[in-house]
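hey team, just a heads up i'm posting the complex here instead of the shared drive bc the drive is being weird again. everything in one block, sequence lines first with there labels, then the predicted structure for the whole assembly after. its two chains so it's a bit long, scroll down
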Amino acid sequence: MVERRPALTLITHLLLLLGVMVVAFPVYLAWVASTHTASTIAQSMPLPLWPGAHGLDNYALALLGGVGESGSRYPATLPMLGVSLASALIIALGKIAISLLSAFAIVYFRFPMRQLVFWMVFVTLMLPVEVRIGPTYQVVADLGLLNTYAGLTVPLIASATATFLLRQFFLTVPDELVEAARIDGAGPMRFFRDVLLPLSATPMAALFVIQFIYGWNQYLWPLLVTTDESMYPIVLGIKRLIAGEVYTDWNIVMAVTLLAMLPPAVVVIGMQKWFVKGLVDTEK
Amino acid sequence: MAGIQLRGLVKRYGQGAHAVPVLHGIDASVHDGEFVVIVGPSGCGKSTLLRMVAGLEEITEGEVQIGERVVNELEPAERDIAMVFQNYALYPHMTVFDNMAYGLKIARVPRDEIRARVDKAAAILELGGLLHRKPRELSGGQRQRVAMGRAIVRQPQVFLFDEPLSNLDAKLRAQTRLEIQTLHRELGITSLFVTHDQVEAMTLAQRMLVMNGGRMEQFGTPQEVYEQPASTFVASFIGSPPMNLLQQARGVPQGRILGVRPEHLRLSAQIDGNGWVARVNAQEMLGAERLLYLRLGDESVIVRLDEATPVPPIGSEVQVTPRADRLHWFDAATGLRGEEPA
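-- predicted structure starts here --
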């Protein structure tokens, strides 16, 4: 703020508070709902605003599975969280690894048709998984990768976004640094490992956050390639809690939802500093 | 220890009819242990020349020989050279120690020896207390010294400097200039130093290579270059203020150019017909001396006066006489130095 007026400060803070409330209230409500019994939620109008006493029971049921009040069976969430975590990590790290190498090739090597290759990578931005889902499914099915981690992650790993972001970052690395490394006798891969990689720490962290959440939120693709319940990621699990059953235990649904939000939230909060630095920082 | 031979060096960018020539054939021989400054205006190809010696730029035609080896086909790391860059090019994520040691680590020099060499270089450059800092925690002058340290620890046959002082402020530049001189005296390593600053060139060089438009104009000691410039370009580029180049003054024959340095012109208020008559246009006070800008016919003339000489009023007419033993004659068509006209 350039101006320093108490009234202005007050208003901006009020606005911020309002914004926080708009965003946080539904989450709070979900948490409150996850601490009551299913019947309390079903019968009270409006929803209770203060937490109840059944939180631990509900979360235990959500995590480990069991029979709800309504008599419906709930699968354990814990393995689904595991599947989600594993595939989100594989997708995020895989994307970073592949994009690092392709951006390195595009920026630092003069191979024939370099521009063409770059544009081909770039054009895949227009072909996300949803567009090419039929053929991709065919390929994965033919390779026998249904219900495997490979099938769940590999088709999502190739990433033009990450390649492009890293390319832009590499372009800002001064040429003199490359030349100094050449004079010091560092070959291309040595330069990559000793100089480029450590310098790319912040953009890599930013990419990790973005891609982890991308991987975590996948719904359509896992829906197609997984049929075995043990390979369901959490997002599918939430969907299945609501569909099909006659009566829904909303307290359990809310508990599962909050559990599903937890890992991405931890990643974002934990890496927030790096994330912002990676997208903003230009210090070389 | 090694000398450097440049033989018919040509550099062109692009190929065929669209090729852009940058260097037109440079022949020069740098002796073992010599400090040679390559100087010229922006875009004259001096950095390209240095980078061709370093191996960072491909050689279109000609040969670069360092010591006994023709190095055209060698990678920079194999040429036994070290380079100091204009922006220092320190690895930002490494400490000062690691920056200096990196090349040695790659060359698989034993750890103890790396330690010893870095410590020695740090002692010479007074970087002892800074070895564990990162480059961003250093001042410009300190970074510059780290860049030199990185060059020193490699114990190369040749040092290459690419305008290493241009990012320093004036005071630090003068000081670093002296340090580089001292360093060269102590280590005695053959050095090529590129700069566009003629003061830097004059003070540092044992011999200087003056370049213009991709050609070598003159290669000689600073004194030779100053006292006997090989062309009008050298005459006007070296020396501040530049040499006066006169074509129309009385006594200058057709097709010739007369060059006189500003300090070799005498001024007198009496006009007795023994010199040129000029009108005073402006004056500049530089402390120990003054510069007087005169108008002589259609040409302008700069005269350097010491502080004792009274300054004639602006607009007045004065007589200027060149010192007869300090005249430089050039051919007007080629710009090259020639004999005194009969």
